Amino acid sequence: MITSVSLNPSIDRTLTVEGFTPGGLNRVISKTDVAGGKGINVALTVSGLGLDSACVGFMYKDSAPLFEKHLMLNSTAYDFVWCEGTARTNIKVFDRAAGVVTELNESGVTIGEDALHRMVDMVISHAENSDYLILSGSVPPGCPQDYYRTLINAVEGLGCRCVLDADGERLKYGLEARPFMIKPNRYELEMMTGSSMKSISEVRAAALRYIDMGVEVVAVSLGVDGALITNGDVTLYAPRMNIDVKSTVGAGDAMVAGLVAGFMGENELEECFRMGVASAGARCITESNRAIDRTVYRAFLDMVKIERV
After folding, report:
1. How far is residue 70 CA from its own chain's centroid?
2. N or C, which end of the chain has less CB nearby within 10 Å?
3. In this predicted structure, what is the pLDDT of residue 243?
4. Which is catalytic among the residues 165, 253, 293, 302?
5. Does 253 participate in catalysis according to the annotation?
């Protein structure tokens, strides 16, 4: 079982335009509302890849039907700490002409102490029956910046490996609990190290610093430049796949899901990396309101090019 933690779920509203003009009039071609947030995205992709998946997290009563329907339709188990109010809305403006997304993300509803304590208990309960626990994304107001560290420490000794995909202070504190894997993007890695990284060798050197800190695997998504992964002994690089991108929303989450699916199968690092990159590629060509197509994913496995660096 792979369990994903969703502390700050969102309604992802995607507006498609043809040529986005900042400060000008932009006519919307289409609009979709999807149950999202990084933790939700990861859990749904794991299910799409054919593995047992569960999502635990905070959920808001007024928004619950959208999330529950989406999870049930994709055969994803869920368990929530229930809160009053409405989930935040994240607006993503997809410029179809340029193939880029502009994001406007809300912070979310403030979480109280009681809900935070109940979430720790819920995560412990699910970790006892999970092989991997994936913690990803932002946290809502009222949630301490070191909360991921709290959750990772809480499940220590229960036999599940923790994967952390966060940024800023959340990543900084989370690293102190030594998760099995982290998945920063280039910008997040640059913020962590305080230096710009223009070459793959610079990214590799930065990733290896976190291996020295006790992380077993560091995967770095590099946008148009592809992705890199290292376990300290082997470092691999995959150039960007040559595909017709519909949207990059959720691609990093799909990579995490594919990587962990590979680890679940006890594959070598290269095969796990191939699965992560193929999963991200499949997400990029799939409409945001649909699960990834497993047939496309399998076809992409053969298209991923991997180099040792």
Report:
1. 17
2. C
3. 85
4. 253
5. yes
